[in-house]
């Protein structure tokens, strides 16, 4: 209780500093918090244990979280300039605080979002609930700084809020995730500052476990959830367990070579980073630190950049250049407004992306129920799918993708192929393909990508195509082990993507985590190549795997504890929140 009160006083002190525009002092406090935490981290890592520092650190963290969000918000780039904008009084701003007439403040600038609410890719509810508020703390960590420029019309930039007004604190939205309290966040922050040394991590599942403990609920649920019953989420990985190896013996495997050729160029390993939206939800460096992790270390891996990244393409591309560059590819969600899709392709070309991946499995957002329940309030309509489908065109068809392909000289992939018939049509029309079900986040109960691969490759070969020579056949979904990658390669995949493992390693340890993740996978690949009796990946073929069990999906049903895995009644979440929140934080 004492700590809680103390937090409140510090938080109030922080807010009053800001109100008095004494930002320098506020920023110093943030920096001293960082120094304090960095030294704490070092000491703890030296000791190599999980003991926590004294409670006073918790106090500082909780109170200063408020300040940090302001500190971050003052470093934003690519936003509309404040120059020439008229100053708007608090009284005038307050008149536009309903969903029908919705003004918000982001980093001091007032926007009229009334017409944008229904189109918001993150769903209309979140903006409706924050009409008439300063949403900077909520907006900044998860939106790329050029999004406003791209999607908000000039006429909807109304002006700047009067800097001399006494802005009411109840109109400032907190960055707090639903389901979290300042105390629960302070504890997670404490865990984050006392992570196990990265050398203690032995498999990439370790990153996932750590993230389940340190990520705010909104990030953890957004990343970890699959759609509906999460059958596909589990099946994606389980399918790999139903394929067994048939190793060769008495082969000299002193030197094994994990390299391969992708899109005509040599790569040290056959895996890459799949596009994932909102990487900054889990780690402030977001896609920029993923880019650094891909580029750093003894070898590089390609990074596919999502249309919905939380950093700008310019920032992500610049991060890659800092370390001598790895391949970057651009994932495209085709906007209802086609000119936006064309602009994105041109931007990707200008930033030297080497391929375009058009996502074709998301005409509507899959219903990820854990995520939906966390955010939804009983009285509000859940409009996330509606919001996203106005951003991603649900009418996209074969003619559209053929048209888009003609607009670029880059290789174009269709990402999200889930049946052999579509694979053949795609390849016949000059596309490369990614066999994927979006990591089990779209249609639930789809056949696993690995199983689809075993149907696609023989059909393509029968029609005279040669994966790796005249077409690329990538796969993603459920890949967690070097052996998973080897199985996919043996079955004809020419590149293997990882989504969540990269998000988790980045969220826990930033670029170093991504680097560690790729090292672990390469080591597993090399070790298992020796055990398989192959020196080069090109030696792998179907004879090295037994896929007889792959089709027998039903045998797993008895082990499927569906309710325990997926079901979270909403009222329990709210009960939990109320208990954790304790008394009023005002
Ligand atoms: C100013 C114009 C805005 C633009 C262009 C914009 C754009 C976007 C985009 C592209 C996403 C990613 C969607 C996804 O991957 O699922 C997103 C998500 C999100 N946005 Fe915005 N947004 C805007 C304003 C706002 C405002 C004012 C708020 C808060 C009041 C907000 C809160 C959110 C949240 C919480 C998410 C995450 C949704 C989720 O996790 O499912 N946005 N937004
Ligand atoms: C949190 C999250 C966000 C994602 N965002 C995108 C996206 O913006 N565009 C896209 O094409 N795929 C997206 N995907 C799908 C991934 O590209 C990939 O297909 C999937 O993560 C592979 O499964 P895995 O996570 O089991 O490795 C996302 C996946 C996750 C988990």
Automatic annotation (TrEMBL):
Catalytic activity reported: (S)-lactate + 2 Fe(III)-[cytochrome c] = 2 Fe(II)-[cytochrome c] + pyruvate + 2 H(+)
InterPro entries, A to Z: Aldolase_TIM, Cyt_B5-like_heme/steroid-bd, Cyt_B5-like_heme/steroid_sf, Cyt_B5_heme-BS, FMN-dep_DH, FMN_HAD, FMN_hydac_DH_AS
Main subcellular location of this protein, as a coarse class: mitochondrion
Domain of life: Eukaryota
Stored SMART domains: Cyt-b5 (SM01117)
Domain Cytochrome b5 heme-binding: residue ranges: 85-162
Compartments (UniProt record): Mitochondrion intermembrane space
GO biological process, one term: lactate metabolic process
Cofactor(s) named in the record: FMN; heme b
EC number from the UniProt entry: 1.1.2.3
Pfam families, sorted: Cyt-b5, FMN_dh
GO cellular component: mitochondrial intermembrane space
The FMN hydroxy acid dehydrogenase domain, residue ranges: 196-550
Example GO molecular function: L-lactate dehydrogenase (cytochrome) activity
SUPFAM superfamilies membership: Cytochrome b5-like heme/steroid binding domain (SSF55856), FMN-linked oxidoreductases (SSF51395)
Keywords from the UniProt entry: Flavoprotein, FMN, Heme, Iron, Metal-binding, Mitochondrion, Oxidoreductase
Oligomer and partners: Homotetramer.
Sequence similarity: In the C-terminal section; belongs to the FMN-dependent alpha-hydroxy acid dehydrogenase family. In the N-terminal section; belongs to the cytochrome b5 family.
Protein name (record): L-lactate dehydrogenase (cytochrome)
Organism field: Hanseniaspora valbyensis NRRL Y-1626
């Amino acid at each position: 209780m004492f700590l809680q009160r103390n937090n409140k006083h510090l938080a109030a002190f922080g807010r009053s500093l800001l109100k008095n525009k004494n930002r320098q002092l506020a920023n110093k406090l943030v920096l001293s918090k960082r120094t304090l935490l960095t030294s704490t981290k070092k000491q703890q890592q030296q000791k190599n244990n999980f003991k926590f520092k004294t409670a006073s650190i918790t106090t500082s963290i909780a109170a200063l979280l408020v300040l940090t969000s302001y500190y971050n918000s003052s470093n934003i780039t690519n936003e509309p300039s404040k120059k020439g904008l008229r100053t708007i009084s608090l009284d005038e701003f307050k008149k536009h605080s309903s969903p029908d007439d919705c003004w918000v403040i982001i980093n001091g600038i007032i926007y009229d979002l009334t017409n944008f609410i229904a189109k918001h890719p993150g769903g209309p509810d979140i903006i409706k609930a924050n009409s008439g508020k300063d949403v900077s703390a909520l907006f900044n960590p998860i939106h790329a700084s050029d999004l406003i420029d791209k999607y908000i019309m000039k006429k909807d930039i109304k002006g700047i809020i009067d800097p001399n007004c006494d802005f009411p604190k109840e109109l400032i939205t907190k960055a707090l995730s639903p389901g979290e309290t300042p105390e629960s966040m302070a504890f997670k922050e404490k865990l984050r500052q006392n992570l196990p040394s990265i050398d203690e991590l032995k498999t990439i599942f370790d990153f996932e476990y750590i993230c389940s403990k340190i990520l705010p609920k909104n990030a953890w649920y957004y990343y970890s959830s699959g759609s509906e019953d999460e059958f596909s989420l589990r099946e994606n990985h389980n399918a790999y367990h139903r394929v067994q190896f048939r190793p060769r013996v008495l082969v000299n495997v002193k030197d094994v070579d994990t390299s391969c050729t992708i899109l005509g160029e040599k790569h040290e390993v056959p895996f890459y980073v799949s596009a994932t939206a909102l990487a900054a939800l889990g780690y402030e460096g977001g896609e920029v630190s993923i880019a650094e992790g891909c580029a750093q270390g003894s070898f590089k891996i390609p990074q596919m950049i999502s249309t919905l990244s939380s950093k700008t393409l310019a920032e992500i591309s610049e991060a890659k250049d800092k370390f001598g560059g790895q391949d970057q590819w651009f994932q495209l969600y085709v906007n209802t407004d086609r000119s936006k899709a064309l602009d994105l392709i041109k931007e990707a070309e200008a930033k030297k992306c080497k391929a375009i991946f058009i996502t074709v499995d998301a005409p509507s957002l899959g219903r990820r129920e854990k995520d939906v329940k966390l955010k939804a309030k009983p009285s509000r309509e859940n409009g996330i799918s509606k919001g996203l489908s106005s951003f991603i065109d649900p009418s996209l068809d074969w003619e559209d993708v053929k048209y888009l392909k003609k607009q670029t000289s880059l290789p174009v992939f269709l990402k999200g192929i889930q049946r052999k018939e579509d694979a053949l049509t795609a390849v016949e029309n000059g596309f490369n393909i990614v066999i994927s079900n979006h990591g089990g986040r779209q249609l639930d109960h789809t056949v696993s990508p690995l199983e689809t691969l075993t149907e696609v490759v023989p059909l393509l070969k029968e029609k005279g195509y040669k994966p790796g020579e005249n077409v690329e056949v990538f796969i993603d979904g459920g890949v967690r082990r070097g052996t998973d990658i080897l199985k996919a390669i043996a079955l004809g995949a020419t590149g293997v993507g990882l989504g969540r493992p990269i998000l988790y390693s980045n969220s826990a340890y930033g670029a170093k985590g991504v680097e560690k993740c790729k090292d672990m996978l390469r080591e597993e690949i090399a070790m298992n190549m020796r055990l398989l009796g192959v020196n080069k990946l090109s030696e792998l073929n179907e004879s090295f795997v037994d896929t007889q069990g792959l089709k027998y999906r039903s045998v797993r049903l008895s082990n499927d504890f569906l309710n325990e895995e997926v079901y979270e009644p909403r009222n329990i979440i709210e009960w939990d929140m109320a208990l954790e929140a304790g008394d009023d934080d005002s």
